[in-house]
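Quarterly update from the structural biology core.
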Amino acid sequence: MKSKATKLTITTTLEVYKSMDDLPETDLELLKMAKKAVKSAYAPYSNFHVGAALLLENGKKLTGNNQENAAYPSGLCAERVAIYHASSVYPNIPIKTIAISVTSKNHLISEPISPCGACRQAISEYENRDQSPIRIIMSGETGKIYVSDSIENLLPLMFSKKHL
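Predicted structure, tokenized:
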């Protein structure tokens, strides 16, 4: 029996920079902050250190890093640490940009790392809350930098409060 289904194709577009030196000055500064935040991440189990830096609409910049726990689900990713910190200190101030950087003690990461699924959902919550896209700058230790103009590029068909 022939299927009556049609195909839905979802594509995404990202800006790709050859290196962090090619970034606009504001993005470069934010990525440098994320790379600095990596250094104080607490990741004794995975040895995967992540830093995030946020630029808020009011011009304030905040950082976060991953915090692991022996009871793995109790840890928290850098992106959510930074986002929740920003929301608690500057409630209702939209996030304009988040920069994410990573290092590993196990191997060199030479490609951009994107947020995990839980972090993508958290970013989408704040995009929806503020009705404003959040730019996402993604990097590894070396190599190219990816920039998305919204979480929608990384989380198509995202779940939001409109579905409740």
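The first helix runs from residue 25 to 38.
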